[in-house]
Amino acid sequence: MGRPMKNEQKFYCGDNAPAAKPYHYKECGLDNIYLMNGYHIEEEDGEDYVSIDSADELWKAIGLDLVRAKKILSPKEIRFLRGQMEKTQSEVATLLRVDDQTVARWEKGKVKLSGTADIAFRVLFLGSRVAQPEGSEILARWLETVRKLIERDAPASDDLLFVQHGDTWEMQRLYG
Fold it and tell me: Are 11 and 25 in contact, with CB atoms under 8 Å apart?
């Protein structure tokens, strides 16, 4: 019989070969952030200290990823984004036209963010200084999508016109 094989974990980043074990970056306040590189761990007096390269850019990237995700923002994500915008609960409440305690309850998980509040919160982050210039670009794409949906939902006629392009057919509304 041969030697027993070690149960070894392997981590992959994209299509790359197995990488070192990622660092679980809990310091940002979120439970699901891992770093493959861009960090340094130094030991001093028996304690490990972590330093992050370009921490502001990392936190911006995390924020942009959160607001592009399809799921409703979690309490920790709301708090993270608010912190990135350097806004108090009261300031966010004023901007979103809700009570101060509503924002506090969202962050504590006592009240779930409504769909409209979720979108408004995302837009607030995307328009903030910290999310630029990417935030403005994402907002522009969102607005263009909304414009197209409005045009599509407001036809001048209920008649449908189909046009063939090569081997595929595409529906177009008849106008006028």
Answer: no
pLDDT tens per residue across span 146-173: 888 877 766 556 666 778 788 888 877 6
Query: Cα–Cα distance between 142 and 35 in angstroms, integer?
Result: 29
Termini Cα distance of the chain: 82
Angle of CA points 106, 107, 112, to nearest 5°: 30
Query: pTM for the complete prediction?
Result: 0.73
CA 63/CA 80 separation, integer angstroms:
8
- Please tell me the distance from the alpha carbon of residue 50 to that of residue 161, in angstroms, as a whole number: 61
Contact 95, 86 (CB under 8 A): no
